[in-house]
């Protein structure tokens, strides 16, 4: 069992306000976020980007574990998580996450790779946390 934390500060209104996010590890320390970085493409972070990074990391680690159980070891894996935030009737919601994985795994055939990647998608803790549609495109490099 492990418990860790992230934190956020905010001051001001929704559009003119400014926030800062931090993580226990110090990987992020008072890193800026706000309306402009979330909705207008301005510099800074946003919750969806952080969820995407967390989901990509969690999924990739889960796949590494599942590969090990199948006596396979990845030479390289890279995952991108596209997180979609949309306006819905009662506000905003994350409506989808699309994982794109590129991997080089010596000794793995594509059918086994797809099966194991699907297990990782369903089983990683962040996937279990998210109440949204999660899709996956996984490609095995030769």
From TrEMBL:
Pfam families listed in its UniProt record: OsmC (PF02566)
Keywords: Oxidoreductase, Peroxidase
EC number per UniProt: 1.11.1.28
GO MF terms, alphabetically ordered: peroxidase activity
Gene3D superfamilies with a match to the protein in the record: 3.30.300.20
GO biological process: response to oxidative stress
Enzyme class, UniProt record, top EC level: oxidoreductase
Top-level lineage group: Bacteria
NCBIfam families associated with the record: osmo_induc_OsmC
PANTHER family: OSMOTICALLY INDUCIBLE FAMILY PROTEIN (PTHR42830)
Protein name as catalogued: OsmC family protein
Organism: Bradyrhizobium elkanii
């Amino acid at each position: 069992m492990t418990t860790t934390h992230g934190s956020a500060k905010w001051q001001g209104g929704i559009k003119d306000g400014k926030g800062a996010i931090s993580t226990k590890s110090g990987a992020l320390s008072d890193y800026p976020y706000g309306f402009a970085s979330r909705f207008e493409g301005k510099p800074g972070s946003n919750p969806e980007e952080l969820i995407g990074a967390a989901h990509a990391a969690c999924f990739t680690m889960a796949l590494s574990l599942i590969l090990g159980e199948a006596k396979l070891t990845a030479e390289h894996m890279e995952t991108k998580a596209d997180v979609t935030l949309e306006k819905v009737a009662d506000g905003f919601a994350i409506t989808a996450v699309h994982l794109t994985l590129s991997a080089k795994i010596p000794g793995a055939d594509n059918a086994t790779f797809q099966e194991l990647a699907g297990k990782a998608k369903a089983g990683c803790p962040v996937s279990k946390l998210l109440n949204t549609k999660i899709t996956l495109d996984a490609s095995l490099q030769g």
